[in-house]
Each structure stands twice: as structure tokens, then as C-alpha cells.
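Q: Now give one record:
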Amino acid sequence: MTKKKNELWEWSKALIIAVLLAAIIRYFLFAPIVVDGLSMMPTLHDQDRMIVNKLGYKIGKPERFDIIVFHAPENKDYIKRVIGLPGDRIEYKDDTLYVNGKAYDEPYLDEYKKEVIDGPLTEPFTLEEKIGQETVPEGHLFVMGDNRRFSKDSRHIGTVPMDKVLGNTGIIYWPIEDIQIIK
């Protein structure tokens, strides 16, 4: 009887430890997320399943063009691309991104730019027109979806406070035929 009781206790401890480890990993390090919508097409597709790396944003700084997940004002989590960092001046003209006056290539948009025949993929704008400030505020990010014509992003909701960022993402793990690391 004691041997069975001891074995049951050992199994219970192992199960408790496994559940605690899973909770810690999910809450502090990595979490799954499902892409909901078309705002990141062609890079990400509706219902792609991805891993969110929470650790990198707790100890590091975001980089331009990272794909991040954040809590949006509508109590939803959004997936968007970082375009502007704190202190940046952002402008779009002639379908080209300018950050602090310097033109940047956005190769992830090339596929869509080729398909557009009725004007630019990204309508021209300045940061001041969109958020009422010349630069991205300290502690905030300016984000946009890759599907520029159909994305609700910083052009509509304003800049994203860093404390609302869950982490960055770049690994699609489902569906199997789409498994990849996104750049």
C-alpha cells in the first residue's frame, strides 16, 4: 500500500511541475497566437499560427521591421510590423518609406506593389498628419500592416505604447505547409 501511495505522490509531483513549467513558459517566455485577418498579407495569412517571443521585448529593444504582437485599444491583440521607433520622423511618398529623411526598402511589400495598378500601395502621409506629432513619442512605436490598403494600424489607432507590446513573432508553425521563419 505504501509503495502505491508513494508512486501516486511521485506522479502527482511530476504533473504539478509540468503544469507549472508550461504556465511559466507561456506567461513569461513564449505563447502561441493565431493571425486573425488579412492585414499582414502577403507575409502572414489568416489563421496562421505563430509563436510570440515575449522574452526579447522584456530585456531588449524593438528593431525596425520586427513583427510584433500588442494589445490594441479594442481589447484585441494585433500583429503588425514596426515602422517607426521612438524619435523617428515617418513619411510615405511615392510608395516609399522615409525615416528621418532616409528612404528605406520594404522587400516584403514587393509582391503587392507589383499587383497594384490603381495608385500607390501605401497612400502618402506624414507622421504629423496621422498622430499630430512630428516624431514617434518616447516609449511608443509606429506600426503598420503589410496589407497597407486593408490594415488598421498606427495610421488609425495611433502609436503603440511599449508596455502594450507582448513580444515579437517570426515563426509560423501551422499549417504545416507554411512552416517558416519570417524576416
In short: The chain has one domain: 32-181. Residues 2-29 form the longest helix (28 residues).
